[in-house]
Amino acid sequence: MRASLCALAVCLIAPCWVWAQQTVGWRTDATGWYSSATPVAQWAADKNVRWSAATPNWSNASPVVVGDRIFYCAEPTTLVCASAADGKILWQKANAYADVLGPDAAEKIKQADAINAKLRALQGELNKVNQELKKGGTDPATQPAQKAKADDLTKQIAPLRDQLKPMEMYILPSTADINGYSTSTPVSDGQRVYMVFGNGVVVCYDMEGNRQWAKLVDKPTHEWGHSASPVLVEGKLVVFITKLFGLDVADGKVLWQAPAAFAWGTPIAARVGKTAVVVTPGGEIVRAADGAVLAKGIAALEYNSPILSDGVVYFIAGKSVAMKLPAEAADKLTPEILWQAPLKSDRYYASPVIHDGLIYAITQNNNFSVLDAKNGKPVYEKKLDLGDGDIFPSITLAGNCLLVSHSNGTTLVLQPGREYKEIARNKLEPFRSTPVFVGDRMILRGLKNLYCIGK
Question: How confident is the model at residue 105 (pLDDT cuts 50, 70, 90)?
Fold first, then answer.
């Protein structure tokens, strides 16, 4: 009976590996809602797994299904194409600096890494001496020697920084171990697949794995790395790194760039009248044609992505807000604020999903909220028992199954609605990606394996 709740009568024919959407990327179409999916409600390593395939390395990126192929990523900078029939790898391409910056890059990378290693060691030693001097915990008799040591270290550091400056393009930016360099999800127009990695490299491949272009567009500067996925908007590839960039899909040329507040989440494509725009998690509305910023500061999400439904953009976090986009475009836009509502004060790594007038959201610490989309008022809130650790996968609605997943591999299958109804509780290997659906099959990227789940 519970499993039957996930089988909709709208899909009576055999499943087919074809998407209706022309563009397939983050959460497939950015909504996380698969209305025609007919998934199973229960699975495990030995139950309802049609196939599983080992991946070259771990990654947080979600898979993307295009026709009979699945695209996913592997650390640090590998794009993988696998068969949707059995998960076997068809091709994989690395996109490190040595792969995209020309034949001389490898030697320069070695030189830059060597200089950078010396610099980090000296800087660490200097920081330690300065901390001791600042605390005043050293013997006054030894302070002159320590000050002299600090001066000497400073003198050693200065020329190394000068040597490193012209080689900065060959140095990997910082990232957190849990984040890596491949957390973004690829995007495809059905003919090509595009990806931005945490090293700042943006690439384009055709379906057969032939690289069409590769560019070092920008470098992330946050110490914990980068995670925003690329977005296709009317012939432009929009990527957010330190700012928003609009690239020509044909050759990767940067057509425009626009300032944007830092955020981890992915921008979404929308329309204001007939004008294509991009709405960022940090609250900017940017015209896709030329990068003009039409609005800014309208909201502020730090970790997850906004969602769009019937011309209303929802920014769901501790301070949630719903805004209706104007009916017509202009050089300056002022969206209408429909409501503002406080939620649990916590980090919302997972992006929410909206369906049938309800918004489903969850925090990193298992606080689950269902909101009325009309006014932002809570329908119910519940602390879920999903285990220790953080919730990174975004909430997904497949048919009549609401999936809430934990990074430890636990997934709750709930019946959507105004009351809490648990259908099933499933366990698989740990994963931080978000599952996607095709017909009666779920494609899930674990940290070690790629899975196709279904009867």
Answer: confident
| Helix, strand or coil, per DSSP, at residue 123 | helix
Tell me the H-state helices in 136-263: 143-164
Beta bridge partners of 403: 396, 413
Q: How far is CA 206 from CA 15, 95, 97, in A?
A: 25, 15, 20
With b for 16 or more beta-carbon neighbours within 10 A and e for fewer, the 255-276 pattern comes to ebbbebbebbbbbbbbebeebb
Residue type, 180: G
**Residue 93 pLDDT:** 98
CA angle (146, 151, 156) in 5-degree steps: 120
* Sheet containing 353-355: order of strands: 353-355, 358-362, 367-372, 378-383
Three-state DSSP state, 213: strand
* Per-residue pLDDT band at 108 (split at 50, 70, 90): confident
Reported confidence tier of residue 4, pLDDT bands at 50, 70, 90:
very low
The Cα–Cα gap between 36 and 22 comes to 16
Residues in the chain: 455
3-state secondary structure of 152: helix
CA distances from 285 to 249, 259, 305, 325 (A): 21, 11, 14, 10
- Phi and psi at 380, nearest 5°, equal -160, 160
According to DSSP H, which parts of 87-244 are helical?
97-100, 105-135, 143-164
- Cα 146 to Cα 158, 160, 315: the distances in Å are 18, 21, 52
Do residues 274 and 329 touch, judged by C-beta distance below 8 A? yes
* Contacts (Cβ under 8 Å, ≥6 apart) of 55: 72, 74, 80, 445, 446, 448, 449, 450
Q: Which residue has the higher pLDDT, 278 or 136?
A: 278
Q: How many CB atoms lie within 10 A of CB 4?
A: 10
End-to-end Cα distance, the chain:
16
pLDDT at residue number 181: 98
DSSP string, 31-89: T-EETT----S--BTTBSEEEEEE-SS---PPPEEETTEEEEEETTTEEEEEETTT--E
3-class SS at 254? strand
Placement of tokens 């918004």 in the chain:
359
**Order of strands, edge to edge, in the sheet holding 244-248?**
231-233, 236-240, 244-248, 254-258
pLDDT at 16 over 50: no
| pLDDT per residue as tens digits for the range 203-224 | 999 999 999 999 999 999 999 9
